């Protein structure tokens, strides 16, 4: 593999001082034993033979720390599919990065967890596709997944590693939010993330089978609000809002190119996990550029930075530096224009259309998933 290390970032001319990214999502691999229909990975998954090697990842972590990144999220696919994960964690610790492992937990033995713990991981996020075995196993298309996850959660706590439960909610499990909360408490988690499915990539493909009704969504919001009060100081609940029924869009990524970056298994650096759904963006790769160069000068990062790119509707709006015009990938998916106002905003001319799509999907009652999988034949392996 050709790696071009550079000791000094090449500073690109920028009009205003750039913010420093404090978080980096490192998608170490797209390999995963589960097949969640809302997976945030792209529909075209990177094959194993396209993945960055260990040496490249270690260099990227060093560059991230020098750039000012404080937290690295080791994710995938399933990051434990990488046999060099412990080496990466040790290196992240060495260069001063807070290291969060995001895992589905399936296939992770107690011995592996012990090694991950000894490497110095700071925190583990464990996904549950349902609060019961029936739902988890169905949504992930993996029999026995739930039981394995329970065992991993107990082992994580036995090792004294702080634990967060991740649950993506949609029509098949949105009624389980109280059970997800109980599950998190019973497993000794201090935090739970309840994220409504975000409709890009795989989830967009499966929107008909995932979209909850408006009533379900508003009931879920009430359940979360009540639980936040009741569990204050015991369990932190982070919620990602359901866009399609919202009045205002989410501040996606807290603004494009403002706080974080994603590195794909093959080394492309993206402003968000779904950015590749936007055509004609030029994503630079860590094989050819340092992370600092990419952050400062890559065309993809500069495409929607700040507010100059915004349509007049957003540029003249008092919320423009609160939600940064919403989500570029959603604008692309619904409006066909990544520079449009996010249709989740009630001021967007497409807001009614978005709502109609959601209601039609929720009413249609599709139940079959198009499960996440490698879609192209693998000739190289
Ligand atoms: Fe946000 Fe633009 Fe809507 Fe204003 S008009 S609330 S900036 S998306
Ligand atoms: Fe790409 Fe929101 S997911 S900007």
Automatic annotation (TrEMBL):
Residues 18-235 form the Radical SAM core domain. Its EC number is 1.21.98.4. It catalyses: [PQQ precursor protein] + S-adenosyl-L-methionine = E-Y cross-linked-[PQQ precursor protein] + 5'-deoxyadenosine + L-methionine + H(+). Its cofactor is [4Fe-4S] cluster. It is an enzyme of class 1 (oxidoreductase). Binds 1 [4Fe-4S] cluster. The cluster is coordinated with 3 cysteines and an exchangeable S-adenosyl-L-methionine. The keyword 4Fe-4S applies. Signal peptide: none annotated. It holds the Pfam family Radical_SAM. Keywords: 4Fe-4S, Iron, Iron-sulfur, Metal-binding, Oxidoreductase, PQQ biosynthesis, S-adenosyl-L-methionine. [4Fe-4S] cluster binds at residues 32, 36, 39. Pathway: Cofactor biosynthesis; pyrroloquinoline quinone biosynthesis. The keyword 4Fe-4S applies. Interacts with PqqD. The interaction is necessary for activity of PqqE. HAMAP family: PqqE (MF_00660). Catalyzes the cross-linking of a glutamate residue and a tyrosine residue in the PqqA protein as part of the biosynthesis of pyrroloquinoline quinone (PQQ). Belongs to the radical SAM superfamily. PqqE family. This is PqqA peptide cyclase. It comes from Ancylobacter oerskovii. The gene is pqqE.
């Amino acid at each position: 593999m050709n790696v071009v290390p550079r000791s000094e970032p090449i500073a690109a001319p920028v009009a205003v001082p750039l913010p420093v990214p404090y978080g980096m999502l490192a998608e170490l691999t797209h390999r995963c034993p589960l097949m969640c229909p809302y997976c945030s990975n792209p529909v075209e998954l990177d094959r194993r033979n396209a993945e960055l090697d260990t040496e490249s990842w270690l260099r990227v972590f060093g560059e991230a720390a020098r750039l000012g990144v404080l937290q690295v999220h080791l994710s995938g696919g399933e990051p434990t599919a990488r046999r060099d994960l412990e080496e990466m964690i040790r290196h992240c610790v060495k260069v001063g990065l807070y290291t969060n492992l995001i895992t589905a937990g399936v296939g992770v033995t107690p011995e592996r967890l012990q090694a991950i713990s000894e490497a110095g991981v700071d925190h583990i996020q464990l996904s549950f596709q349902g609060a019961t075995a029936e739902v988890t196993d169905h949504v992930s298309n993996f029999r026995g997944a739930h039981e394995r996850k329970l065992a991993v959660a107990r082992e994580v706590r036995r090792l004294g590693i702080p634990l967060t439960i991740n649950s993506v909610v949609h029509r098949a499990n949105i009624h389980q939010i109280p059970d997800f909360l109980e599950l998190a408490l019973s497993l000794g988690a201090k935090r739970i993330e309840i994220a409504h499915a975000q409709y890009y990539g795989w989830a967009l493909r499966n929107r008909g089978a995932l979209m909850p009704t408006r009533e379900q969504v508003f009931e879920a919001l009430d359940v979360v609000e009540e639980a936040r009060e009741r569990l204050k100081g015991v369990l932190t609940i982070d919620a990602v809002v359901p866009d399609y029924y919202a009045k205002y869009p989410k501040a996606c990524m807290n603004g494009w190119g403002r706080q974080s970056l994603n590195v794909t298994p093959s080394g492309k650096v993206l402003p968000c996990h779904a950015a590749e759904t936007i055509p004609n963006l030029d994503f630079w790769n860590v094989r050819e550029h340092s992370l600092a160069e990419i952050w400062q000068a890559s065309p993809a990062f500069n495409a929607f930075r700040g507010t100059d790119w915004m349509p007049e509707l957003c540029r003249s709006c008092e919320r423009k530096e609160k939600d940064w015009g919403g989500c570029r990938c959603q604008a692309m998916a619904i409006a066909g224009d990544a520079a449009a106002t996010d249709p989740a905003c009630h001021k967007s001319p497409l807001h009614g259309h978005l709502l109609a799509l959601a209601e039609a999907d929720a009413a249609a009652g599709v139940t079959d998933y198009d499960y996440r999988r490698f879609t192209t034949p693998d000739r190289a392996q």
